[in-house]
Amino acid sequence: MQTMKNSNRDLLVLVKDAYTNKEAMQHELQQLNKLLVNFETLESFCIAHEVFDIQKYRILKKKSQLQKVIERETLKPFMFICNKN
Q1: Is residue 36 domain-shared with residue 53, that is, in the same domain?
Q2: Domain range for residue 78?
Q3: How large is the average pLDDT for residues 65-70?
Q4: What pTM was computed for the model?
Q5: Coiled coil where (predicted)?
């Protein structure tokens, strides 16, 4: 399974109890990072996204097609990566 690079990240965590101790918060952040590493894969990215190629009037949905597009340094003009939500 291939994972996307995410070595450094900033997380904004909202808690109900403002008096949570630092160790509990650190544990919570570690658990969130473990969860996110499992879900942030190329496979799940390709399931949740598609590419609109306006110049060729087509929608790219296959994993191999999406992978080629996202590996480019810049998108070609009139190509849009869209979340399916």
Answers
A1: no
A2: 47-83
A3: 94
A4: 0.65
A5: 15-42
Look up tokens 């996202």; give the residue.
70
List, in sequence order, the alpha helices (H) in 2-62: 22-39, 42-48
Residues 61 and 79 reside in one and the same domain: yes
Distance CA 49, CA 58 (A): 14
Q: How far apart are CA 41 and CA 18, in angstroms?
A: 33
Q: What is the pLDDT of residues 11-38, one digit of tens each?
A: 787 877 766 788 888 888 888 888 888 8
More confident residue, 14 or 75: 75
At which residue do the structure tokens 């790219």 appear? 60
Give which of 78, 80, 72 is closest to 50, Cα–Cα: 80
d(CA 63, CA 65): 5
When pLDDT is averaged across residues 62-69 and rounded to a whole number, the result is 94
